[in-house]
Amino acid sequence: MPTMSELVDDACDQYVAAMAGRGFNPTGVRAETLAHYAGVTTGYMSTCLQVHRTAQKVAGMTKYVLVCEEYGPRARWRIMSKPGTDPATIQQSRRQHARYVVEDNVRKLMRDQMLEVYPGLHNTQIDTLIDSASHFAANQFENTLQFVGSIL
């Protein structure tokens, strides 16, 4: 019986081989697609992907390095590296993902401020402080986004 990480790697092997047979070099995959190749439910594969993500922190523990982009059942797992991946391609993927993570966090902060923080503010002293702190955080996040974009 394969471990959860091995199940993910085996499903990735099948998926990558199937895409190569169609002339594609896949850069990402959805949990439901890997679940299909592994013959398990999407929910179980999602759990396996989380275990795999932890295991891949140790070099050599997994054949593939996968990172999640987006959220929920339709999340896309980006294939950062697979057997035989050129190191330059891996570096480019890591830069792109680092930018994605910062951009995603800026979007989440802005959305949460607009939908959750600002509607509850009134003209009280504490609300003025909350508003100032929220604007400060937004500015810091935007500065970080610009910095990351400029160096990556």
Key attributes of the depicted protein:
Arc Repressor Mutant, subunit A, 152 residues, mainly alpha, three-stranded antiparallel sheet
CATH fold type of the largest domain: Arc Repressor Mutant, subunit A
CATH C-level label of the largest domain: Mainly Alpha
Q: From the helix content, strand content and strand pairing, which structural class follows?
A: mainly alpha
Strand arrangement, major sheet: 1-3-2
CATH architecture of the largest domain: Orthogonal Bundle
Structural summary, described in words:
The chain has about 150 residues and is mostly helical. The protein has two domains: about 5-85, Arc Repressor Mutant, subunit A (Orthogonal Bundle), CATH 1.10.10; about 90-150. The protein contains five helices and three strands. The protein has a three-stranded antiparallel β-sheet with strand order 1-3-2.
Could you give the topology of this structure?
Blueprint lengths: L3 H18 L6 E3 H8 L3 H14 L9 E5 L6 E6 L5 H31 L7 H27 L1
Antiparallel strand pairs: 1-3, 2-3
Offer a quick outline of the entry.
This protein has 152 residues and is mainly alpha-helical. It is built from five helices and three strands, in the order H-E-H-H-E-E-H-H.
